[in-house]
Amino acid sequence: MANELSFERPLIELRDKIAELRRFTAEKGIDFTDEINRLEEKLRKLENDIYSNLTPWQKTQIARHAARPTTLDYIGLLIKDFIELHGDRCFGDDPAIVGGIGKFEGIPVTVLGHQKGKDTKDNIARNFGMPHPEGYRKALRLMQQADKFNRPIICFIDTPGAYPGMAAEERGQSEAIARNLKEMSSFGVPIICVVTGEGGSGGALALGVGNHIYMLENSIYSVISPEGAAALLWKDASLAQRAAETMKITAQDLYELKIIDGIIPEPMGGAHKNVKETASHIHEFVSKALKVLRPLSREQLIEQRYEKFKQIGQYMTLEEVFSS
Q1: Is residue 245 predicted with pLDDT exceeding 60?
Q2: What is the C-alpha to C-alpha distance for residues 191 and 208, in angstroms, rounded to an integer?
Q3: In terms of CB atoms within 10 Å, which of 4, 183, 246, 269 comes out highest?
Q4: Mean per-residue pLDDT for 76-82?
Q5: Please, what is the end-to-end C-alpha distance for the chain in angstroms?
Q6: Residue 148: alpha-carbon gap to chain centroid
């Protein structure tokens, strides 16, 4: 129950009541079938009411859920014969990003993603999914290898952001992110990106320059966290909920703004409720994307990616500025 979210408390209370009645039925031989059925129907309606009307802050809480599936969970369900590769050939290996090669529907692919931990010890080892520059350089090395051998690239994005510590800055954090943005824009292979949890700032974007970008239904993608935005705008990080309401960070917002190409459904309550079902939905979207992208030439893939990002936001050329 420790992983349950605050807005789920009414559901927890109902589930506990149903469990208690079932226990009485088994232990005392008293028939509570009618009451159990009534409570289960009430539970179904309440679940539908809550999960069909989640606020941006509630979606943020689900995106950060401790039990939310990680990149390695999805790799285990989607990629056959996966071989993890390590190191950036420059400084070391960063456990906050995992990557390697395997097969998706029999097609050789390179798979990359941010990796959070499953418990406190694992999270510390993986720096809570916040990569150092060697993580991004490892990702770049594997993507360059994929481009050389004409393998599609699949990226899973789930990070609060790149690690902002002194050591990371000393080793060139901003340069590593910027280089990934530049290089990803020029690869001549299909790049498919899936935001599975938090898509935080440049730390997420460094794996996010794709031909097709998808988000899980309860994931978020933003230039800054709601807490960070609240601290900057109102000098009060406790106003994160208010910030989340205004930032347009949900999958639904970003699809409407044409920043992403599709929203991948999750089981009611979040991806952690049924990992296999979530992976099945991801499989469907990635499969369709590869069918569209693989027939394209290298030049067409680069052009499609360029046009996609060119259409994001509003801007004016120098000629338009001086003529206005």
Answers
A1: yes
A2: 9
A3: 269
A4: 97
A5: 60
A6: 27
